[in-house]
Amino acid sequence: MSRRHEIPSLLRWLLERLVPRERREDVLGDLEFSYRERRTRRGGGAAGWHLWKETGGLLMWRLAGLGKGTLGSDLVQDIRFAIRTLVRRPGFSLTTILVLGLGIGAPTTVLTLVNRIFFQHPAHVVEPDRLVRIWRSWGPGQGGGSLANPDYEYYRANASTLEGLAAWGGSRVAAFNVPGGISDQLQATFVSDNFFDVLGVHPVTGRFFSPEENRDPGVDAVAVVNDAFRRRAFGDGAPAVGRTLKINDIDFTVVGVSPSDFRGVDALGSAPDVWIPLAMFGAMIRAEDSAWWERLPHLRSSWLSLVGRMAPGATFESVEANFATLSANLTYPGRNENEGVLVSRQYLYNPSMATSLDSLSRLLLAVVALVLLIAVANVAVLLLSRATSRARELGVRAALGAGRGRLVRQLLAESLVLALVGGAVGAGIAYATAGAAASLLPYHFVGAFRPDARVLLVCLGLALLTAVLSGLAPALHVARSDVTRSMGNAHVVGGRSRGRDILVVVQMALSLVLVAGAVLFARSFWTARTQDIGFRTDHTLVLRVNLRDRGYSSEEGLAFLPRALERLRALPGVTSATTTTMVPFRGDWSSDLDPPPGALPNTDEGKIWVGRNSVAPGYFQLMGMPILRGRPLGAGDVAGAAPAIVVNEELARLLWPGQDAVGKTLDARDLDWTVVGVVRNATYYELGEKPTTQLYTSVYAVYQPSVSFLLRTSGPATEVAPAAKATLREIDPGLAFNEVTTLASVFGEVTARYRVSAVLVGLFSGLALLLAAAGLYGVVSFVVARRTREIGVRVALGAGRGRVAADVMRMGLRMAGIGAVVGLLGALALRRFTAALLYGVEPGDPWALAASCSILLAVAALASFAPARRATRIDPMEAMRTE
Amino acid sequence: MKGERMGEFEELVLLCVRQLGDDAHGAALQSLLAERGNREVTLGAIYAALDRAQRKGLAQSWLGEPTATRGGRAKRHYAVTPEGERALRESRRIRELLWSEAEPVRP
After folding, report:
1. Helix axes A21-42, B43-55, angle to 10 degrees
2. Could you give the CA distance from residue B58 to residue B14 in angstroms, rounded to a whole number?
3. What is the dihedral sign for C-alpha A603, A607, A613, A618?
4. CA–CA gap between residue A736 and residue A717 (Å, rounded)
């Protein structure tokens, strides 16, 4: 029989202990048979998983025999005895259970997050394992963009390895009203006619879309509503199918209702309120032409996310090959040769998000693995100390005929009971804290985070592993020592033990690694939060609207903006107001310029790439962006006046190196634009970016229908939001707000990825340090208590109390010192691992490492101080009298 | 007679034991239950049911010879005792009686 069909040795070891000897042969035989069969039928992963389930089942079987007394095996007796022994020592038991609970709780909490992030199937989607996502890629291995409609139709018609290919996109907020009913705003998503079929979802009532309804742009105004939205819009028991829903002034007929928790395959975001055919997109955004529909594949018109279902018999590799061929055969004018498609099995996230969540998960899993190891070492010390102080009891039992094996099993049984209870505590901790931990994640997940059966089973596995690992040291100790001899002179045994010292050093070393990580991540987060990004983020409300969705012509838009700004400025609590097209860190609007002679191009094609923005007067002042030369854009810079632009330092440097940009002209769009001012560089897209170019025009000269109002407030920015929304709705009751937020929270989202590692690694390292300190304190106290007589004698012989205290302190600090050195080496070895997750600080940063060592030694000194003080108070006379 | 009553799962397991005859051992019972009963159960659950049945005298077991397909490990064979056979028949009789007396239910 080949080795790979055998049960892993760890599990076999565990099983051999779980099953009584007389049943070992046939039970293991059955298990191996069942395991092998599953391996051939379902593969290694499923079989491994099955094996753990079987182990759980066998455990239940053995426990079921507990109460009946019919299966009077040693294990059952051992466990019963262990429970009795542990109940008699509640202090020791509770401490151990608490340590184990924290140690197991940390990984269980993180596993709950990881499980939910990566392994939760989207609601109502059938066989998600057969789904693939198709992304636009801009070079080998780089991808994550959406695709244009013609591309989608091409792939849908030609992908032979897929059973179906669906598309969705264009999610937006729009105002709606039910004729004779409520009016509010809703979230709409545009989907292809086969979207629901490909995912395998069934309507609650009514039907989904037909291919005809997705054929001609703007003709079939039909909608599928979410069941929860149906209740909100039409009332609780009211039918929706056949009703009319006016969305952004278009009458839609409701044809079906989707399950309330169905939200497609995206893991993030809430369920859309309505689903609308792709063909209605142009009408909904009131595009003057149906450009979205007919335009050639092009970067600007890419707005669709694609999900496909693999055909029966197709493999992921065959789908990849299929799409590679299709993409190579797709030609259109101006196509970028590097562009293609990326097929991804990860259907929940786009590739960059998946990568960032993946590295974060790995970091957290590594951190909690260290926490668990520390807890195991800590409990091992506790158990070891107890085994030493129980030398007499164990000696008596040995003398009465208990074999050494039986004593070892007894100790293992005790650690098993402790670990199982500790595991339950850990599961409880995960239940209580997973939600809070999830709220720190850089992405917003909808719904609760709770450990499911899978996580709980792993938690049980961890508890069993912990039991074995922590019980091993004391068991070996007993197995090796001569228990009967220690009966008579218990007080001599075990002043210090090498094993215990090593375990304390291990805890110290692991803690240092974690503390070093925490210091680095805290510094990284601090750097990210406090660095100069070139603009203010405080007291600023952002309201994003799209005037094109309202059907405004540019004249109407230009009339709307000054009216809106005037009334917003008059609101109480608002000190100034302006508009911007680009909100920092949110996407880009850019164009290429042909460089004037002497300029420094910044693209491979020899052009100058510029970020663009159209702003209302007062923008630079409100944002706190200083004008270095010239003037800002003013009320006079309107269409028809002398075309004026403001450039940032970087653009000025590239266009006119070494010269004053003010007064220079730039030829673009057949107009000679005159630079009237130079503004300081700022961060526009992501933290830590190299200075990028930026060109500002007045929104009154270069109109953009996508507008964000910025309001500077005297009090908290969010307090002004309701009044600001009401004011804008007074001017246009049909206005929908795509987003209402503050600049501070936009910036908060950007720094969230640094915050989550700083907070979680900080918490876990604090926990680790606490455990390690408690471990050190325990060992030092234990040694002092054991050496009471010796210390008494030394004091009686004239040793100074200071000397005694120093000896004790030295013992504690020596262990911490060795631990710190080992930990430092560990931290340096892990340098490469953390580098990618840090911002603005080097993983080998000497200050951070020095600070971590200081923290560790300070905590160690604190932990040794109490036992040292106790040592100085030993009364020689008293000490000599005890035994 | 309360202690002698068969549980539903116990009955299912015993019926499988009966069907497998000479080949009735843990892993085979597990496969059969998965196949016929459409239930994925762990070996532990099967052992627990068989332990109960043995305590009530409804089944018996013995250790067989080691076989190569099981990595040289021996199988524990199970068989239904005459008393078990009686209990199974009795259970079947009661069920059939109740089914035959029941009003036909309109779907």
Report:
1. 140
2. 8
3. positive
4. 20
Segments forming the whole domain that contains residue A334: 128-347
Q: Express each pLDDT in A521-556 by its tens digit.
A: 999 999 998 889 999 999 999 999 989 888 888 899
Token couple for A581: 């097209």
d(Cα A774, Cα A379) in Å, to the nearest integer? 11
Q: 3-class DSSP state for residue A249?
A: coil
Torsions phi, psi for A451 (to 5 deg): -65, 130
Strands A671-679 and A665-668: antiparallel
A306 and A408 fall within a common domain: no
- Cβ neighbour number for residue A717 with a 10 Å cutoff: 25
Q: Which two tokens stand for residue A166?
A: 């669906």
- Nearest-angstrom CA–CA distance, A159 and A167: 14
How far is the CA of A573 from the CAs of A230, A577, A717, in angstroms? 37, 11, 9
Report if residue A177 sits inside a domain.
Answer: yes
- Give the Cβ contact number of residue A268 at 10 Å: 15
Best CA proximity match to A221, nearest among A183, A198, A252 = A252
Residue with tokens 């996502």: A133
Same domain membership, residue A569 and residue A706: yes
Number of domains in chain B: 1
> In chain A, which residues touch B (CB < 8 A)?
1, 6, 23, 25-34, 37, 53-54, 56-62, 64-65, 70-71
> Which of A19, A25, A58 to mutate to test binding with chain B, by most B CBs within 10 Å of its CB?
A25
In a domain, B2, yes or no: no
For residue B86, what is the domain's CATH number?
1.10.10.10
User: In degrees to the nearest 10, what's the CA dihedral of A262, A265, A270, A273?
Assistant: -50
In angstroms, the first-to-last Cα distance of chain B is 37
Interface confidence (ipTM) of the complex: 0.84
Q: State which H helix or E strand residue A501 sits in.
A: helix A498-530
CB contact under 8 A, A26 and B71: no
The pLDDT of residue A883 is: 52
In this structure, the answer to whether residues A327 and A303 fall within a common structural domain is yes
Domain of residue B34: give its range. 7-101
Distance CA A231, CA A239 (A): 9
Pairing of strands A304-310, A644-648: unpaired
Instruction: Check residue A691 and report its DSSP letter.
Output: P
> A398 lies in a domain?
yes
Q: What is the pLDDT of residues A149-186, one digit of tens each?
A: 888 989 999 999 999 999 999 888 888 989 888 888 89
Q: How far apart are the first and last CA of chain A?
A: 62
How many residues does the structure list for chain A? 883
Token pair of A631 as six digits: 């003037």
Q: How far apart are CA B100 and CA A322, in angstroms?
A: 60
pLDDT of res. B22: 85
Q: Does B9 touch chain A (CB under 8 A)?
A: no
8 Å CB contact of A29 and B74: yes
Task: Collect all residues with Cβ–Cβ distance below 8 Å to A153 and sequence separation of at least 6.
Answer: none
Q: Does A137 lie in the same domain as A112?
A: no
Are A785 and A824 found together in one domain? yes
Cβ contact, residue pair A30, B25, below 8 Å: yes
CB contact under 8 A, A70 and B55: yes
Whether B73 sits inside 8 A of A54 (CB atoms) is no
Positions in chain A short of pLDDT 50:
1-4, 67-72, 295-299, 487-495
Token pair 């409990």 is found at A379
Asked if the structure places residue A357 within a domain, the reply is no
Q: Which of A296, A345, A290, A322 is nearest to A155 (CA)?
A: A322
Residue B22 lies in a domain: yes
Distance from CA of A104 to the nearest CA of B (A): 26
Torsion of CA A794, A798, A801, A806, to 10 degrees: -60
- B1 lies in some domain: no
